[in-house]
């Protein structure tokens, strides 16, 4: 059997028909967490004009990759960068990040950042090969309660 070829994939913005496959891909790639509803994450990114979810489709139109991009007026951010296991190591991750960077550039961003979970250090080499450097920041966070 021949190796999957990333040049056979099509990249485009997510559509309604892709959503379940995208969420399944994120689960398969261990990118979901109990405290984040992935369907809501997709819907939120699609609702705002400054964010998107890009998908890669194989020759059978199956979703085999994703990258979420968002620009908040200061920096572009990447989330949910994922490649289906059978296509890893074929350059698709690089293509997806490049497409997301281009989307951010067109949105007005001149800098891009992403967060890597400390439990996912294995992926640091991937980002290093794409030119990403440790920004030497500690990420802090809290939940915002809905306005009353
Ligand atoms: C990270 C991920 C998207 C990489 O996708 P991929 O399609 O395998 O990556 P590519 O084939 O485009 O690799 C691009 C480069 O990174 C390197 N690379 C890929 N994965 C790597 C790893 N785990 N460690 C070191 N280098 C890696 C490749 O060797 C290649 O280098 P080269 O261009 O110099 O030859 C994929 O492994 C994945 O989906 N992982 C699970 C989800 C995840 O953890 N996402 C990141 C969340 S922050």
Q: Can you tell me the CATH architecture?
A: 3-Layer(aba) Sandwich
The dominant shape is globular
| Helix-strand sequence | EHHEEEHEH
Rg from alpha-carbon coordinates? 15 Å
Which stretches are poorly predicted, pLDDT < 50 over at least 5 residues?
Answer: none
Number of domains: 1
Q: What proportion of the residues form beta strands (DSSP E)?
A: 15-25%
Beginning-to-end CA distance, first to last residue: 59 Å
Q: What's the β-strand tally?
A: 5
Helix content: 25-40%
Main beta sheet: strand number and arrangement?
5 strands, mixed
Would you state the CATH class? Answer: Alpha Beta
Return the CATH topology: Aminopeptidase
Q: How would you state the average pLDDT, rounded?
A: 95
Which structural category fits the helices and strands? alpha+beta
Keywords: Acyltransferase, Transferase
Protein name: Ribosomal protein S18 acetylase RimI-like enzyme
Pfam family, one: Acetyltransf_1
Domain N-acetyltransferase: 9-148
